[in-house]
Each structure stands twice: as C-alpha cells, then as structure tokens.
Amino acid sequence: MKNICHICCIGAGYVGGPTMSVIADKCPDIQIKVVDINPERISAWNSSDLSKLPIYEPGLDQIVSRTRGRNLFFSTDIENSISEADMVFISVNTPTKTSGLGAGQASDLRWVEASARQVAQCAKGHTIVVEKSTLPVRTAQTIKEILDTTKQNNLVQGKNPTFSVLSNPEFLAEGTAVNDLERPDRVLVGGEDTDAIESLVNIYLKWVPLERIIKTNLWSSELSKLTANAFLAQRISSINSISALCEVTGADVAEVSNAIGADKRIGREFLAPGPGFGGSCFKKDILNLVYLCGYFGIPEVGNYWQQVVELNNWQQKRICKIVLQKLFGTVNGKHIAILGFSFKANTNDTRESPAIQISLDLLEEGAKLSIYDPKVKPQRIQEDIDEYSKNSPGQWTVANDISEALKGADALLILTDWDEFKNLDWNYLSTLMRTPTWVFDTRSVVNSIDIKNAGINLWRLGEGV
Ligand code: NAD
Ligand code: UGA
C-alpha cells in the first residue's frame, strides 16, 4: 500500500476548498496543494483577511488559518502540483449541459475530461486519481481511458506514469460543511485496486471510525451519490406537495411533518417545507439520473425522478401567485422586501436559489424589490437577476440591512432560513412599512403571534386557514 505524502486537488470550489482544508487539518504529515484555473479564486483563498475567503462556511476560516502555509497551499501551478502528487482529487464543476446532445439533462464533463488529460500529461510514477466531483455512473471508465491513452507524451519523457482510479463522492452540505467533513455519516470509497483503496481509507482513518467507511465497486459508488441526492430532494418535493394541500384543507404542514417524522421509518430530517430546494446539485444530479435512465433504455424510471424536479419548479412558481392574490391582484409599483437570497442559511451560494426565480416572477409583475441577504454580495445578486430581467417592468435594489429593506414596503417575503430573521422586533418594523402590511414566510421562521400582535397580515407556507 502506498503511503500518501503529497495530494493535489484540482478545483478550489465549495467542495475542493473545505474538503482539503479538513484533510490538511487532520493529517499534518500530508502536503496538500489545491489548484484552480481561476486565479481570482486562488488569490481569495490566499487572502490574509480570512473574511475574504471565496466561500462563506461557518468554522472554515479557523481551519484555513491553522493549516494554510503549513501543509495546505492554494495555487494556480497545476502542472507541478500534479507532478509532485501521489494522489490527485478531481473536484471540478459538473453542471448540466446547456447545448448539444443531452442539453438540459446530462452533466457537462468537459472540466473533468480536461483535468484527467492534465493528470495524464503531468503525473510521475504511480498516481491514484480520485473522483470527488459528482459524476454519472461509469465515468471512471472514461477517466481510465483518458489517462491510459493520453499518457504517451509523459512516457516519452521517461516519467512512466501508472494510474488507479477511485470514486470518493462528497456528501457535505453547504452551511454545515465543516461538521459534515469532520463527522461524516459515512465515507464512500469505490474502486477495484485494493492497494489504492487502502491508501485512501488510511487518510480518512485519521479521524473517521472504520465502521463509517463503506467500500463498494466503482459503479455503486458513483451511482450512490446521485441516488442520495435524488432521495433527499424527493423528500423535499414530497413535503412541499403536502404543504400546498395543507393550505387548502386547514391542515398545518408543520404538524403533519412532525407527525409523520415521529415514525422512525420515515425520520425527521429533510421534512421542512419551503420555497423549493435550491443549490448547485439536487436539480443537476436528478436531471443527470433522468438522462442516464433514458440512455440505458429505462425511461419509466427517469419519468419517476423527473417529477421531483417538476414539483420543485411548481413550488417556486406558486409563491409569486400567492403574493399577487393577497395584494389585491397586483404588485405593480408596490415595494416588496426580499429577506434572504442564498439557497439556504449559512452560505453565500446562490446557485439555483429559489429566491432568484421568485424575484424574477415579481419583477415580471412590475414590483419594486429591495433585497437583503446577510452574506450574498450585491454583485452576485446583480448577476443572478440582471441576465433574465432585462425586459421586466419591475425594479430592484440591494439593502444593507433589514430596516432599509422594509422601508415603505407593502410586503415582506422571507425566502432563506437565516437565524437573524427569527426574532425580529415586529412592533418596530411594522412602523416602517405601508399598510395593509403583509409578511409571506416561506420558511416558517417568524413568530406568528408577534406578527399578528403588530397588526401585520401573515401568510405562512403550508398553513391552512
Ligand atoms: P465549484 O464551481 O464551486 O468549484 C469547481 C472549481 O473547479 C472552480 O473553481 C473551477 O474554476 C475549477 N476548475 C474547473 N476546471 C478546472 C481545471 N481543468 N483545472 C483546475 N480547476 C478547474 O463547484 P463545487 O460546488 O465545488 O462542486 C464540485 C463538484 O462537487 C461537482 O461535481 C458537485 O456536483 C460536487 N459536489 C458539490 C457539493 C456542494 O455542496 N457544492 C457537495 C457535494 C458534491
Ligand atoms: C445537498 C446534500 O444535502 C448533500 O449531502 C450533498 O453533498 C450536496 O447536496 C451536493 O451534492 O451538492 P446542499 O445542497 O448544500 O447539500 O444543502 P441541503 O441542506 O441539502 O439543502 C438543499 C436545499 O433544500 C436548500 O434550498 C434547502 O433550503 C432545501 N431544504 C432542505 C428544504 O427545503 N427542506 C429541508 O428539509 C431540507
């Protein structure tokens, strides 16, 4: 079994950055280089001001401060970092294809392929290549072929590289990444080369109990990652579908969720209704699953999973309709405050955030939005909204705090479950708003009694009347 002294991680994003920081923290004997083609991202990771790291993740700044420069390095020198490494993690983006065959469903593997080619060209000796990105089942085969056929130049230079490919999908969730990495429910390692598997398992054993490390074949590992995300997303679409039924029947989705979650076969996690799931992965991974089902000739299975995404789209779209209905059928020219723009609390990530679609729908109706989020930068909001709202009659601005967002507002929408939205002084805030005043709480974070006592109308997602 090869003892790993040098790791290179290709991709310094939401997965590569935190994952390597935690490995560096737990394994001070391993030198880790995290590399990226994006120089701005690398320079942000190297920023002496830890509040300027490219991603916001609670607890990450402390880990980076004790490992960076010791055994953790962020760099754009991809070639040398690969050459030095015994093990290379591929942790690059795998978004949904936007054009060509499989557009709108299949994962775009161009960054994975480029990484594999670069590894083949730069590696020396025996290198273990670890798929950390979420990939379609059987991608390891493609990576192996690329590594074996591209290494010719390298052979000529006498570097004589050989490779083992492992699958080690990541299950961290944003906002809780540090805890998820330090105390994972399980670590999954798929592969055929038992020596390579043991080398990777030995790294995790520095902090993860053996019984939490699951070994499978390559294809089970790749497919388990897609399946885990599909199951989690399915639970959210399930409870969101019931939230709509609660609203028209007088049931309360919080009570239903509590009642069904008490059955330990169902369990309590992932039963919180909301404005629809966001994030870079649930939708893309389910669409990828749907594509694979079509490719392998089982469209019936694909259709089943497609419905999870359809329900999610519907849930996002229905929020604007409810706002319109409550505000006398029009929001044209009305001031609406949006609290929360990230796709969930404790992250600055807005990828696929339901707040984007809901804001666009309201702008299309001519609303004047004032958007506040504790961690998302104004430029990010601008990029998310501007591209799709060019011809909308509405207007939008970014507010610096909650009071500014609420000034003169007819209504307020809570779209992200940030802690700071939970205990607001509604008696004071109501004085800033126009009457009749509405609060639309899609995350069940506000205290309904406080709101009603302040003379504000409340609509809460999944609460029947
Ligand atoms: P990301 O977009 O934040 O980061 C990917 C990085 O890879 C980018 O900085 C990009 O510049 C870099 N990159 C792309 N091609 C490169 C190349 N050839 N050489 C060097 N760098 C390159 O993406 P992410 O959120 O970190 O996701 C990465 C993968 O992990 C995806 O497959 C995703 O599905 C999976 N995943 C993500 C999460 C999550 O919470 N975000 C969780 C589990 C798994
Ligand atoms: C998710 C999975 O939880 C991770 O295990 C996985 O590694 C990751 O995707 C990935 O592959 O990228 P993440 O998207 O970061 O993690 O965050 P989640 O906590 O899963 O939340 C996703 C979305 O679902 C958010 O918009 C969240 O608000 C929503 N959600 C979550 C609900 O609406 N209700 C819930 O009960 C839980």
Describe the structure.
It is elongated and about 75 Å long. It is 43% helix and 14% strand. The termini are far apart. The longest helix has 32 residues, at 218-249. The protein has a 6-stranded parallel sheet, with helices on both faces. It has 2 domains: 6-216, NAD(P)-binding Rossmann-like Domain (Rossmann fold); 283-460, 3-Layer(aba) Sandwich (Rossmann fold), CATH 3.40.50. α12 (282-295) runs antiparallel to α13 (299-326). It has 465 residues and is an alpha/beta fold. It has 18 helices and 14 strands. The model has no long low-confidence stretch (mean pLDDT 96). Residues 134, 170-174, 229, 232, 236, 270-272, 274, 277-279, 281-282, 343-344 line the site of uridine-5'-diphosphate-glucuronic acid.
Quick rundown:
This protein has 465 residues and is an alpha/beta fold. It is 43% helix and 14% strand.
Provide tags for this entry.
465 residues; alpha/beta; Rossmann fold; six-stranded parallel beta sheet; 18 helices; 43% helix; binds nicotinamide-adenine-dinucleotide; binds uridine-5'-diphosphate-glucuronic acid
> What low-confidence regions span 5 or more consecutive residues with pLDDT below 50?
none
Give the cofactors and ligands. nicotinamide-adenine-dinucleotide, uridine-5'-diphosphate-glucuronic acid
Basic shape: elongated
Number of strands: 14
Number of helices: 18
As laid out across the biggest beta sheet, the strand order is 3-2-1-4-5-6
What is the CATH architecture annotation of the largest domain? 3-Layer(aba) Sandwich
Overall mean pLDDT stands at 96
Q: Look at the structure and name the CATH superfamily of the largest domain.
A: NAD(P)-binding Rossmann-like Domain
Question: What Rg do the Cα atoms give?
Answer: 24 Å
Query: CATH top level of the largest domain?
Result: Alpha Beta
Helix content: 40-55%
**CA(first)-CA(last) distance:** 64 Å
Approximately what portion of the residues adopt beta-strand conformation? 5-15%
Count the domains: 2
Q: What does the largest sheet look like?
A: 6 strands, parallel
CATH overall fold name of the largest domain: Rossmann fold
What structural class should be given to the helix and strand makeup? alpha/beta
